[in-house]
């Protein structure tokens, strides 16, 4: 009901044209009763009213394609989702005298005008976003071997550069530098055989569905008389070979130097990079390490390949100089209240003998 006319109430129809006509008359009479009357004000209110009427009628455009309305679950670019043949960086098999050696397929482009340098490195995942070069106490007896490309200079300079590392440990700073963008190649955590809901993220069927609801209802038409590879099916999940790109190096620690500790310019507390109690399922970091931004593939102690980026980095994030102010070394079990054992002992005081 609308009683703003000053006379008898007027019934407003539910349909949009009738509502628009009656409301227009209402606005016109209201402006006639006011002292200030302008045509521009009526035109402005008319446009506002038209937009409100369109919104009230919920006029929506239909979708142009099914993929916008109900996109598929899971990317087809990572098929087949099966177990990786090796949990190192995938490479080409090259025969050698002592056995097999792997070569990384994708490496940065060689530039003879620049000095010689290595393009990749092997490391072990420690925990959080820390990656180190060496890990003792592993049960595996077979060494991880990989052929790595040497960039820069002519052939003679490359041979001399590689010969200089014979029977020596290659330091981490010979390959990477702080604030550099790198790629990580490895194999993800294995999950085993899992269903379509977990593996592909499809929607569960209604509760009363016969013979299970964590399934795909329709796996295809009668003809072609086969199941398409694009249909979500149960199978192996995890332990897939993946390459994560653009990981920025926040800190590079050298064993036996101050850079190996967790001290910064703003936090001068003497503490090691290893958190209290060690990294869960890993232990104590004793050798060179990299502190990177982001996640890292695989479980703890899994070997990963660190590679120089293949892209020309021009973004502000890639070129930014990082200054760490604080490195958290609290325990990774529990709440993690203290940064060092001395801080914990000072807080609790002397305990009973």
UniProtKB/TrEMBL annotation:
<protein>
    <submittedName>
        <fullName>60S ribosomal protein L3</fullName>
    </submittedName>
</protein>
<comment type="similarity">
    <text>Belongs to the universal ribosomal protein uL3 family.</text>
</comment>
<dbReference type="InterPro" id="IPR000597">
    <property type="entry name" value="Ribosomal_uL3"/>
</dbReference>
<dbReference type="GO" id="GO:0022625">
    <property type="term" value="C:cytosolic large ribosomal subunit"/>
</dbReference>
<keyword id="KW-0687">Ribonucleoprotein</keyword>
<dbReference type="InterPro" id="IPR009000">
    <property type="entry name" value="Transl_B-barrel_sf"/>
</dbReference>
<keyword id="KW-0689">Ribosomal protein</keyword>
<dbReference type="GO" id="GO:0006412">
    <property type="term" value="P:translation"/>
</dbReference>
<dbReference type="GO" id="GO:0003723">
    <property type="term" value="F:RNA binding"/>
</dbReference>
<dbReference type="InterPro" id="IPR019926">
    <property type="entry name" value="Ribosomal_uL3_CS"/>
</dbReference>
<dbReference type="GO" id="GO:0003735">
    <property type="term" value="F:structural constituent of ribosome"/>
</dbReference>
<dbReference type="InterPro" id="IPR045077">
    <property type="entry name" value="L3_arc_euk"/>
</dbReference>
<dbReference type="InterPro" id="IPR044892">
    <property type="entry name" value="Ribosomal_L3_dom_3_arc_sf"/>
</dbReference>
<dbReference type="Pfam" id="PF00297">
    <property type="entry name" value="Ribosomal_L3"/>
</dbReference>
């Amino acid at each position: 009901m609308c009683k703003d006319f000053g006379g008898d109430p007027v019934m407003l129809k539910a349909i949009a044209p009738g509502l628009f006509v009656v409301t227009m008359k209402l606005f016109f009479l209201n402006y006639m009763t006011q002292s200030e009357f302008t045509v521009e004000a009526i035109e402005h209110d008319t446009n506002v009213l038209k937009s409100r009427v369109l919104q009230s009628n919920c006029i929506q455009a239909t979708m142009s394609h099914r993929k916008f309305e109900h996109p598929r679950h899971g990317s087809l670019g990572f098929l087949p989702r099966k177990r990786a043949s090796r949990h190192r960086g995938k490479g080409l098999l090259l025969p050698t005298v002592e056995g097999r050696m792997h070569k990384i397929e994708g490496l940065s482009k060689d530039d003879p005008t620049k000095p010689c340098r290595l393009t990749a490195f092997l490391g072990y995942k420690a925990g959080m976003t820390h990656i180190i070069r060496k890990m003792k106490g592993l049960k595996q007896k077979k060494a991880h071997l990989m052929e790595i490309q040497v960039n820069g200079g002519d052939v003679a300079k490359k041979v001399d550069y590689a010969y200089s590392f014979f029977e020596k440990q290659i330091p981490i700073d010979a390959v990477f530098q702080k604030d550099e963008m790198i790629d990580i190649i490895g194999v993800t955590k294995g999950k085993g055989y899992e269903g379509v809901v977990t593996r592909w993220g499809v929607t569960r069927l209604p509760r009363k569905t016969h013979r299970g609801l964590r399934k795909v209802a329709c796996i295809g038409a009668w003809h072609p008389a086969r199941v398409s590879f694009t249909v979500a099916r149960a199978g192996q999940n995890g332990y897939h070979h993946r390459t994560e790109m653009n990981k920025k190096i926040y800190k590079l620690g050298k064993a036996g130097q101050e850079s190996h500790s967790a001290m910064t310019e703003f936090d001068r507390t003497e503490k090691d990079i290893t958190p209290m109690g060690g990294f869960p399922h890993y232990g104590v970091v004793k050798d060179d390490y990299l502190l990177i931004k982001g996640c890292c593939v695989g479980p703890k102690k899994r070997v990963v390949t660190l590679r120089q980026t293949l892209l020309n980095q021009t973004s502000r994030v890639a070129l930014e100089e990082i200054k760490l102010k604080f490195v958290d070394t609290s325990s990774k079990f529990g709440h993690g209240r203290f940064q060092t054992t001395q801080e914990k002992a000072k807080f609790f005081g002397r305990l009973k003998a």
